[in-house]
């Protein structure tokens, strides 16, 4: 049976950076409400909000201290209820981020677990080790060990992300019940779905095992804490209960390292788990030109379109008949499309055309529709990230200047991709009357107001693209990728008698393609079309229908 989310076109809003209504420099819920006309104009039908719960903001809201209240910097519960109803009145659904793998160390459960080693909340988390000896050598995603000392007991607690974000113990039925209650609390408020943050990590392997690595190293031990079989066992009752109570709820899982077969397992309706999964595996980079003397982490890497083509083909083919692939170019965890991949505005638009017209659910990261690039940060400290400091140390040793390092990391890091929305070409961009919370120099000349007024703009291209995506052919049609050279990306969508061809020139040279498709329904860049030949300008893209 068709569900609303099979036709979702999601717009990801990073609430701190979208619109500030009370002029404290931090975006908020009332601000988002004010911008609903903009969202309607763009044509999206679903909004995903990054976390807005009470949080010390160590990880910008992914460190939750109270799941039942809104962070005061972003508003109140009344604002949230108001936003949900205003979006609904405007025909827009809303999904919220749901952080279920960890809490903040300021969450009352954790505070109690630390204050009272005999507390029932001790077992809500993962304490292990003794006499000041860490249980193993596993490294965390945010740098350093996953183990942080609990000085009172000589034990350690486990954290996959920042040390202020202790992982929950999903083996404990109390944790499972509590997380379900939180999810249902929000669904009862009328939200339409949940994005399950980092759910693939809720099960961990036996802590006695070290990850094979030279003495003294702290390797990120993914096989011991990603996609373990117990994930499914913990998740199924959670998902089943939610679907029983809220059958229309979209369960969208963030499965960063899941390969296509796991994604199929997580989203196969037969398995009673999720509806769709977000993978990071689609982003194929060319590592062959890196400086081997320094870590790969923040070096600029060209995008590998050939590998990408194969990945797209495999994901589309494997998930056909199972679930909707999730189609996105950027999010808050990575550098922006226009900085990371697209060489110019023309290519960025063609890449949007290429991806979002495939079979699947597009997620557009706020500002992508304006062609925004990453900010440039002026100081390494602005990144507030241990892994950046570690990288800079290595790079300095190899003779890189601070300016070179800053340039590299500004292009590759997630923080400069979280800049505030530039609504107008005025001080603070119409985002706020206050200096924005995230500073950094804007590197592009795109502003919403000007783009809305310009029929040739990025924004208006996205509008047309979204309108086309909403037609049955692009929502429901089958997908077939043509086996062409690495110069082009060409696929076909078919539904009944209808058929369309999406043709994108991946290169900076003109492209010639033989085709019988003659009716242009969307174009980006110059082209010429004769009886059976199409010529496309560098990086241009075209959507054609059969006549
Ligand atoms: C994934 C989120 O997208 C990311 O921003 C966050 O840091 C981690 N999960 C931890 O919650």
UniProtKB/TrEMBL annotation:
Q: Which Pfam families match?
A: Alpha-amylase
Q: Which UniProt keywords apply?
A: Glycosidase, Hydrolase
Q: Which residues form the Glycosyl hydrolase family 13 catalytic domain?
A: 12-412
User: Which InterPro entries does the UniProt record give?
Assistant: GH, GH13_cat_dom, Glyco_hydro_b, O16G_dom_2
**Which Gene3D superfamilies does the UniProt entry name for this protein?**
Glycosidases, Golgi alpha-mannosidase II, Oligo-1,6-glucosidase, Domain 2
User: Some GO term, biological process aspect, for this entry: which one?
Assistant: oligosaccharide catabolic process
- Which top-rank group of organisms is this from? Bacteria
Which molecular-function annotation in GO is an example for this chain? Answer: alpha-amylase activity
Q: What PANTHER family does this protein map onto?
A: ALPHA-AMYLASE FAMILY MEMBER, NEUTRAL AND BASIC AMINO ACID TRANSPORT PROTEIN RBAT
Family named by the database record: Belongs to the glycosyl hydrolase 13 family.
Name of the protein described by the UniProt record: Oligo-1,6-glucosidase
**Native species:** Lactobacillus psittaci DSM 15354
């Amino acid at each position: 049976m068709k569900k609303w989310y099979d036709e979702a076109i999601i717009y990801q809003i990073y609430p701190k950076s979208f619109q500030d209504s009370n002029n404290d420099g931090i975006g908020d819920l009332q601000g988002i409400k004010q911008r609903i006309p903009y969202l309607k104009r763009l044509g999206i039908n679903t909004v995903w909000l990054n976390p807005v719960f009470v949080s010390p903001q160590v990880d910008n809201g992914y460190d939750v201290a109270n799941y039942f209240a809104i962070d005061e910097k972003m508003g109140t519960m009344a604002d949230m209820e108001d936003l949900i109803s205003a979006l609904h009145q405007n025909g827009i659904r809303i999904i919220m981020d749901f952080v279920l793998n960890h809490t903040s160390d300021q969450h009352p459960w954790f505070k109690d677990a630390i204050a009272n080693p005999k507390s029932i909340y001790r077992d809500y988390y993962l304490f292990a080790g003794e006499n000041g000896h860490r249980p193993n050598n596993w490294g965390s995603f945010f740098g350093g060990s996953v183990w942080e000392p609990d000085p009172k007991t000589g034990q350690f607690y486990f954290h996959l992300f920042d040390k202020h974000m202790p992982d929950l113990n999903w083996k404990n039925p109390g944790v499972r019940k509590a997380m379900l209650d939180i999810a249902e609390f929000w669904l009862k408020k009328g939200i339409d779905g949940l994005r399950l943050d980092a759910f693939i990590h809720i099960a961990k392997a036996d802590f006695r095992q070290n990850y094979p690595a030279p003495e003294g190293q702290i390797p990120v031990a993914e096989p011991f804490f990603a996609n373990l079989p117990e994930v499914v066992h913990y998740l199924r009752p959670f998902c089943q209960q939610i679907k029983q109570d809220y059958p229309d709820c979209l369960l969208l899982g963030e499965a960063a390292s899941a390969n296509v077969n796991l994604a199929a397992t997580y989203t196969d309706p037969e398995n009673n788990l999720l509806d769709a999964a977000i993978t990071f595996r689609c982003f194929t980079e060319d590592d062959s030109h890196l400086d081997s003397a320094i870590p790969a982490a923040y070096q600029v890497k060209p995008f590998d379109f050939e590998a990408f083509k194969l990945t797209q083909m495999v994901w589309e083919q494997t998930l056909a008949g199972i679930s909707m692939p999730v189609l996105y170019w950027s999010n808050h965890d990575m550098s922006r499309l226009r900085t990371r991949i697209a060489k110019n505005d023309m290519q960025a638009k063609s890449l949007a055309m290429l991806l979002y017209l495939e079979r699947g659910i597009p997620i557009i990261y706020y500002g992508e529709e304006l062609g925004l690039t990453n900010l440039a940060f002026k100081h390494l400290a602005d990144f507030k990230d241990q892994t950046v400091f570690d990288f800079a140390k290595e790079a300095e040793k190899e003779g890189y200047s601070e300016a070179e390092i800053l340039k590299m990391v500004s292009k590759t890091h997630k923080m400069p991709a979280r800049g505030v929305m530039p609504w107008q070409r005025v001080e603070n961009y119409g985002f706020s009357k206050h200096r924005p919370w995230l500073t950094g120099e804007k590197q592009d000349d795109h502003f919403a107001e000007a783009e809305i007024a310009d029929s040739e703009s990025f924004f208006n291209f996205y509008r047309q693209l979204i309108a086309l995506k909403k037609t049955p052919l692009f929502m429901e049609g089958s997908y077939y990728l043509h086996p062409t050279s690495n110069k082009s990306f060409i696929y076909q969508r078919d539904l009944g008698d209808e058929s369309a061809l999406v043709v994108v020139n991946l290169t900076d040279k003109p492209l010639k393609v033989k085709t019988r498709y003659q009716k242009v329904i969307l174009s980006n860049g110059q082209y010429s079309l004769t009886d059976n030949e199409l010529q496309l300008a560098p990086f241009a893209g075209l959507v054609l229908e059969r006549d």
